[in-house]
């Protein structure tokens, strides 16, 4: 038995089994056949769906029953509900010592909220953000290999214990993720630019292309399909995400608007050299960011 | 022998064998084993590369030799060189009666230029635009199935003959394309919105995300990868394309800049309802445009 194996959890509670939570249950069942799985959902219908799919030993809307004795709790609900769940967890006397993490796309407010909520409760929190979303949502889109080969950002703070960090690292490695660690604020600055703003850009491009004439859709090719794919995401979820990270998103959206103003200017002035320079610089950066196209 | 078969060409000349031209040669060889293939390239090294790959019976930088006796000529050079090639074709006495088409991403200026250049020459032109580009370019990225299942826009005008239209329709169907016909101006309006502006948007998003801090690339996930994929395209080719379609592109880029200004406004005013509405409307349009994600 090596030291790493001691970090593998034996009882895992997944709170909020949508796309991410459902995929975690499937992956855990596959990779740790002996693990004891529990799933909590707020709605009775969601619990019934979980039971029908036999994704966990215990499926319930009773939080206390689900987390009792768990050594790892993963919160997979929308970012804005996380602090509420954290405060409910803090009141439970049943799972002291469990490591708690989450899958939220925003970290500064979530981590601060969870650390405050769980302070002194015996739960041991560290935030994480697996970069494995999809424009599809819900349990019906879940799959065991969703995390395989994807990045997972882990966001420790001064309050994070070595034990929690060790458990959470080992857990995401088991899920197949490449790990990266940074503070919650640094995380939010990065994902505002690399995920949240591009999400809003996909929506803005779709509206600008189609808003006043739907017929242009007949000409859609792979370029439009890829450029706007994320605009098919859940509008309510994403409204929550961008407002939870509002300052950094605003900064990135202003930068994008300014680049569009540059483009208008370049086209108005027929400045081909500047256009070439604009496209060259962005190609260099894009090839740097995602070399395997 | 059915009436359609009579439209299939027996000698095809491909001018400019990069990604699109090279893929056409490969697809033709596969689908019409008896066809006689010719390829023209401006540069000697490109001719040598063609010869090494044995993609055509005749590979040459001598335009007259390549088009002699061809019944179909497909121009696959960058859009700005097309009219020049058209004027050179018009001077050749060797291929009268051949149908000529192109693969340009811009149509109004190309079609007008070609119709003028070939007027009275005996060549019979109709424009086409297979929506099968790629962020990769050049002969080394070519493949026989590039066009399979892709849309191809054909842009007849009042000068287009039934014969030319019949030959070109049959040709792209053979390549595996879904056909759509519209006038050159209508084409340019559509692709400015659905292809050229989204291309510039991918570049603008990349610059806004990364320009002042390359380290954010560590957080790149599938969303950024897809949203910005086309920004890896060839900067010189795309500068030519957007300036050849400058008025329509400017219109679409202004619309996109205005949507970004809306986003800045929404975030500044903390108007969550408006954000939800923005994302909902774009999701409806995006799902309408590309239902199979």
Automatic annotation (TrEMBL), chains A, B:
Keywords tagged on the record: Oxidoreductase
Prephenate/arogenate dehydrogenase domain sequence ranges: 10-293
GO biological process: tyrosine biosynthetic process
InterPro entries linked to this entry: 6-PGluconate_DH-like_C_sf, NAD(P)-bd_dom_sf, PDH_C, PDH_N, Preph/Arog_dehydrog, Prephen_DH
SUPFAM superfamilies referenced in this protein's UniProt entry, alphabetically: 6-phosphogluconate dehydrogenase C-terminal domain-like (SSF48179), NAD(P)-binding Rossmann-fold domains (SSF51735)
The keyword Oxidoreductase appears for this protein: yes
GO molecular function, one term: NAD+ binding
Keyword field contains Oxidoreductase: yes
PANTHER family in UniProt: PREPHENATE DEHYDROGENASE (PTHR21363), PREPHENATE DEHYDROGENASE [NADP(+)] (PTHR21363:SF0)
Protein name stated in the entry: Prephenate dehydrogenase/arogenate dehydrogenase family protein
Organism whose genome encodes this protein: Phragmitibacter flavus
């Amino acid at each position: 038995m090596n030291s790493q194996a001691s970090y593998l959890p034996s009882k895992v509670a997944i709170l909020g089994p949508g796309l991410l939570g459902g995929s975690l249950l499937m992956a855990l069942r596959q990779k740790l056949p002996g693990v004891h799985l529990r799933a909590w959902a707020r709605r009775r219908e969601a619990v019934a769906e979980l039971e029908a799919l036999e994704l966990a030993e215990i499926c319930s809307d009773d939080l206390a029953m689900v987390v009792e004795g768990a050594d790892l709790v993963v919160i997979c609900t929308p970012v804005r509900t996380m602090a509420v769940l954290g405060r409910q967890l803090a009141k439970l006397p049943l799972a002291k010592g469990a490591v708690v993490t989450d899958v939220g796309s925003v970290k500064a407010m979530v981590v601060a909220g969870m650390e405050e909520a769980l302070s002194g409760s015996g739960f041991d929190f560290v935030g994480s953000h697996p970069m494995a979303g999809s424009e599809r949502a819900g349990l019906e889109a879940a799959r065991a290999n969703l995390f395989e080969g994807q990045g997972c950002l882990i966001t420790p703070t001064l309050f994070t214990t070595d034990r929690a960090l060790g458990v959470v690292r080992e857990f995401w490695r088991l899920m197949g993720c490449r790990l990266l660690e940074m503070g919650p604020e640094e995380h939010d600055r990065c994902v505002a630019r690399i995920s949240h703003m591009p999400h809003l850009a996909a929506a803005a491009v779709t509206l600008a292309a189609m808003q006043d004439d739907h017929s242009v859709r007949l000409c859609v090719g792979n370029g439009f399909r890829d450029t706007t794919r994320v605009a098919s995401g859940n509008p309510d979820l994403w409204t929550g995400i961008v407002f939870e990270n509002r300052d950094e998103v605003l900064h990135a959206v202003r930068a994008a608007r300014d680049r569009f103003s540059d483009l208008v200017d370049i086209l108005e002035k027929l400045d081909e050299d500047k256009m070439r320079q604009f496209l060259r610089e962005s190609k260099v950066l894009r090839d740097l960011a995602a070399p395997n196209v």
